[in-house]
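[job 4417] fold queue: 2 targets
>>> target A
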Amino acid sequence: GLEYLSPAVLENLWAALEDRTRSEAGRAGVTVQDYLKNRNPLWNMVGRIAFHLAENRKNEIRPFGFLVTFTSRLSALAKPQFLPLGKAFREFADRGDRRGLLALLTPLQRAAEASELIRELVDSGDIFHPLAWTVRETCRFLDEIPRFDSCGVLVRIPETWQGRCRPPRPQVSLKVGEKRLGGLGLDTLLDFSVGLTLDGEELTIEERRQILSETSGLVLLRGKWVEIDREKLSSMLSLWEKRTREEGGEGITFSEGMRLLAGAGMEAQETLSATGAAREWLDADAGKWLRSVLAGMRSPEGIAPADPGEDLKTQLRPYQQTGVSWLRFMHDLGLGACLADDMGLGKTIQVLALLLILRQRRLSGTPPPSGPALLVVPASLVANWKAEIGRFAPSLAAFYCHPSETPAASLAALADAERRDAMLSRTDLVVTTYAMAHRMAWLREVAWGLLILDEAQAVKNPGARQTRAVKTLTGSRRIILTGTPLENRLGDLWSLFDFLSPGLLGTEKVFSRYAKQGRDGRDNAYSALRALIRPYILRRLKTDRRIIADLPDKAEVRVFCPLTKTQATLYEASVREMAEKLKETDGIQRRGLVLAYLMRFKQICNHPSQWLGDQAYGNGASGKFRRLRTLCEEIASRQEKLLVFTQFREMTEPLAALLAETFLRPGLVLHGGTGVGKRREIVNAFQREEGPPFFVLSLKAGGVGLNLTAASHVIHFDRWWNPAVENQATDRAYRIGQKKNVLVHKFVCRGTVEERIDALIEDKKDLAESILGGEREMLLTEMPDEELIRFVSLDLVRALDDENGGKEEKGRRTGG
């Protein structure tokens, strides 16, 4: 792999370090700046103003002290050296140190503009002297602390507050799920108990009376200062004491309890945990039994193993064994499970192992009794599932509700309840497609023992007809399989969970409002959402060496391509035409117009003939074609195999013709018009060692369900706007059984909308990783006209400069 090491790869190692830092900061629910401060707060102190608040127990009337300092340096022992603001100001003035004076005065001016209290101190000159403060003055300061950080001012608080920016608060404590239950479901009622605590310790009746009668905002309790908001605390306590009286301490549903524990307020009436700052006065904790359940959901390695025995005709890898045990654990609890392993890690095997365990239970009469399972898949994967069942779980009695496997007359006959019941009585699993789930009404009449969705992103659009049909299927246990549980929008996540665990994320309207809070950076909504959904998701990555050791690394490189003069001329003319038409359209028509031109730009970037429709496809007329030939000459010289993906069916044959000239051998083509039987034949041909050297696939037809590990190179000739789809296509080669290093080449035309879309794709990846671990997606159709034209305009110098346009830059290694 040494030939793949380049300055660009090293550059991306640094980028990966930066990404990792951002990812860890996201998981911690803090900004990168706060993350670095927490790792070593001293890094951030030198050269900055600090507001110090200290306790003064000797003065009962003014029990707090306030002082402003400047951190001049760190001592030899790495301790910050503070100068009083007045002294620092005089030293800088005496030296004529303009930069030092700016470091003092600029953040102070910002703080005065943001805070009325600081403005008063600056105007009076008191800011330069130590001050003794009353409780009321201290409360004013505490309320304005959030404004100071953005002004560049540090805040130092008493050590007895244990690193918090505010004194400790008493909280309404809620203990949920202490008593053991036989099973769970989202509507299962959990026990709960209510109390009033401080730092986890129950308050006495006298202490409760003292804090609930306090009006000053701070009270000295148990030898330490405690912050009080009597109105919010009393409101929260009254709410839960009322529920205790009305429901006898048995009234929290499981979904309600999970939202409470995560701190995610998604209730339609917002009565559960109140809203906004009021939630800060509630501390929900799992009881002993529920805590053990959540530990199993979050850390499946500790779950008792589930063994399908000899009925499974393969040896499970350790992580697959863990996955099967977790699926059985979630099934037995009656909870939905999202198996979100990377493509190629064997989600199918894990599900088949679970189905064999459930079959064994039915045959032995082990309760609880359950009916057959229903598996819903894309039509292109019916044959794949059939082959996998025959290979790994031949004892599983499966019925295929699809005309590709069962005669249409036989399927129509199942409308008769008696025939249907007879079929179901001898069946462990019914396999059907999303389209059939809509067409076959009887599928929605059966109470299925288990519902399974493969490629579950098919139901990400809650308004789609097939999504609505699937969500009317009946089944108390549910599993969804997807390599990417979150794709482009948080709304997709809501739709998936609306099937998996209905009601957990609230209504679509409430969730949309909640997601907007996350995008606006309020209420730490993303962190709470992660905490809420994580127990339902098991996700393992191929790049994690703790999970699997026999899958080689993959490397991704951007291949920047120039435009030819013909392409540049067509592109610029299209931008001008788009700008004129935008002046005449609005609303839905404008959205359609924008999408049509974005597609045209991508077609022109591929080849002028794709847009012109002249079928010429000369190799010299396209910068991408030129670059593809050069790249593939090198691949052919190494006798390596290649996959080429394009989202346009009409591009598959021209690409295959170019590659045949380069490899001096014909290759293979697969698109939406390729029959199911033909697909299997050409896949097998490609996988043979002496088989064709290249395979051109349309992204939708070949992006899922195929095993193409003979390839060691993957080229994305044009780019999808969804990283999940693109990565799934790459995973046709990068999966279990791959023994070669996989190099992924992503073609991008410089100076065009493709280069800017590439940046958007990376932003979308950040969104997914933050939720499973923020939203930065830009909706192009909603851009103002002027901004949109800037976004798509051609940078002619960059586009026609071929000095670097054909080189592979910004290589990014994945997998460690």
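>>> target B
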Amino acid sequence: MFCCLLFCSFSHLQAQYSVSPNDDSDIEWREIKTDRFHIVYPNFYEANAQRIAVVLDTLYPYIGSSLGTDAPNIPFLIHTNSSKSNGLTVWAPKRIELWTTPSPTSFAYPWSWHLAIHEYRHACQMQALNKGISGVLNNIFGEHILGAVSGLLIPMWFMEGDAVVAETALTPSGRGATPDFKMQMKAHLLEQGAFNYDKAILGSRMSFVPDEYVLGYYMCAYSRNIYGKDIFADITESTARNWWSLNWFSRADIRGIKYDESRIYSNLTDSLANLWGHEDNLWLASTDKSCLDIIQIRKDYYTNYLNPVKTGKDSIIALKSSYFDLQSLVLIHNGKEEKLRSLPFLKHSFFDYHNGKILYSQEAMNQRWGQQNYSDIVEYDIKSRKYRMISSKGIFFNPVYNPVDPTLIAAIETDNRDNQSLVVLNTGGRFEKTKNILRKNRNIYIRSVSNQHATTLSYPTWSEDGRFIFVIETNEKGKLISRYNIYTMEREVILQTGYDNISHLKQKQGKLFFIKDMDSKYEIVCIDLDTRNTMQLSETQFGVGDFHITDSTRMIVCPYSSMGYYLAETDCNPKPVNLFQRNREAVFVDLIREEENFILNDQTLNFDSMKYESRPYEKIAHLFNFHSWAPIYMNISKMDFGVGASVFSQNLLSTSVLELGYKYNFNDTKNELYMNYTYSGLYPIIQLEANYKTRWLTFDTGPADLYAKWNELMMGFDISLPYSWNTQQSVNSVKLRMNYSVRKLIPKELYSPGEEIKILDIFNTMGIGLNVSSLSATAYNDLAPRFGFNAMIAYKSTLTENPAEYFAAKVTTYLPAFTKNQSFELALTYQTNSPNKYYFPTEINFTKGIHNLSPKEFYGFGITFHTPLSYPDWKLGRVLYVKRVIARPFYEFGSFDQKTFQSFGSDISFNMHILRIHTPLETGFRIGYLTERNTLFFNLLFSLDL
């Protein structure tokens, strides 16, 4: 049963054995270690690490209580050199990683606190599974057991939904309390009705389906409402102890009650549809829908239009995004749409516009360190189609032009301690040549006009006279709007909105406009800066996502629907409203907060009285962490599985990864022992490899085939120097490789009727290689890049008197095809080898349908057409759910020592989920025809869609 569990959870392996990108090798690390948690962080992050420690310590008695477990002692790894804002919990090896840079789109609560609650709850979910037979197997075979149990038996909607319930119940904010979740579910249920359960939990590549966070929150909160707050403590314990008897999460029998998740889903959607249907009827009775002049644009599928700007009498530019296209800047004129430019790396779906130019922040890669990236300010001239980099290797969000002097730019700058500043940038340096200059970036002078370091900032906007900047500030008391004088740095609080979410500030005509949570719906409101009167300007069905004030009476809005955000024009119809009054809580929020009976806020946290001992974190002392082992062969680096045994080690920083294993092949009594070790904590990536295995070769000599079989012991190392970067449209990389090995060959069988083959005894090899690629960014439904190339060249040789040599070269080019998500792939390959001396393992693919040939010289050509066939969202009970059908017709030509072969055919694959496991598979078959041999060939295909 154990082996069956591991094989069935194959689709979850990528999440299991998660090797994260690396931090800069120059970072010196420190650690705070207690009997409850372990925090590892850069040495310059000490003050914030102490605050996170206080948060974790305060949370400890509460974070796992409704799951019937204490929080596990788990390491937290803090990444601070990134524009990324996210969290990750994995269990092989177990760790929590936090990217603590605050995002301008975060809610009315400190970002690092929100992250800590959500990810700490994930750790409690895993700990709740560490009981019974699962706990025993975890102690025997290591940490991947719990990951296998969760991946196979626990639905993802519970994992994420329960964590959202925790962040909502334990804080005065949380995503469950915001309109973001409600608008998606409400629009979906009222306009389209509930999907079948499989589609609801597994999603679609054609239709928009509220994800596991949204659906999961409502499923978990509703279940607690029906069965009590301990329902999931009982279900996870039952699953952990009894999964071997098929008593799984979806079949749990608790307190004499069978928890049927599909029935819960049906009851939930009926309940929410009734509740929100009543709300909708009241809205229809009190609102004139005809006041929205919808800008008619053809939408065949779910598409979002955001960030509208009116650029002419009948012209609007906006950001468009969908599953089928890259995020793009589009021009809409008289109902017709023109694509201006793809913006795949645009941050936070935000840009500013002035006089034919747009200004935005764009994600930029570090050349080597995956955990270090930037958010650069870019200006794009729509007319000339030229870019200008404003900043380089900084982290800037939400840049906006000064309306009087567009050479002045306001933006939010973040440093590696998570301190955020409101800054003014200027190319001329006139304004910033004072003692307040922070630094110079490229040719840009930067001056800070704020010093609220305990505050995070978002959505700055200039006053009409260009002398003031308005900005949203977030701290432990929620959100507020401040105004800064850029010359005196004086700060004035305009409005405090507490824990109600606000965003998208715009100032015009003496008023400050923004989006605010108004009774669980985002609407446009404003405050008169002279009288301080507050008004609500919109009353939409499901809420708005963005807007643009055109004049004193009209505005362009982006209302939400089940087909995405759309564009409409409407009158500004102000009605007085009290923005200081706290909203009613969304459905289920009061219930789950009452059940938890604890709120993490400035009243329950005591930063002043708690101090934790910290010490340097020694990287060398923590190189090895043996976390998992199994009585099956699992070569994770090569995604190869079989009969045997495996052992895994990975350190917390993901710089030291070791795999040991043994594999046995019944078909040809082939044994293999292997060791792979990778160290990536320096700029060069060093890989050590040792293996002992059986090899053979067959090649055509004319009158008869030659055949040899031998055991081979190999020990070697590979050193690579990677360099990566992205442009406006593409991701690029160059990698130089050098390898060296020692090999010993032990002959087993030798059959050579035509000539003798000399098998070397013990010898050394050396090789070099170069990989270069430039690939266009891909949309969600793209099967391959639409533009770009991959190129590789490799040379190896034995260091012997009469050397065996190997040379390979391959160039793959991608070109757009006929419609969206289609592309052509063209490949040219060439290889020479030395089968009479030593046959190096090939680094290129031969012509499809050809096997067991070992040519001295090969060259080939291939063309593949990548195209989706359909998006059926078809299910077969609870066993199978198919999202997409794909075809890859191909033609290939190859010359094997002057003997040519041609093959043609097609791969047909299905993007699917099996047994409702969340990670999709891509499974199918290849059928082809070899013209020279007049034979058909058939292969089964399998991969993970990650």
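[job 4417] complete. Note on B: The two ends are 27 Å apart (CA to CA).
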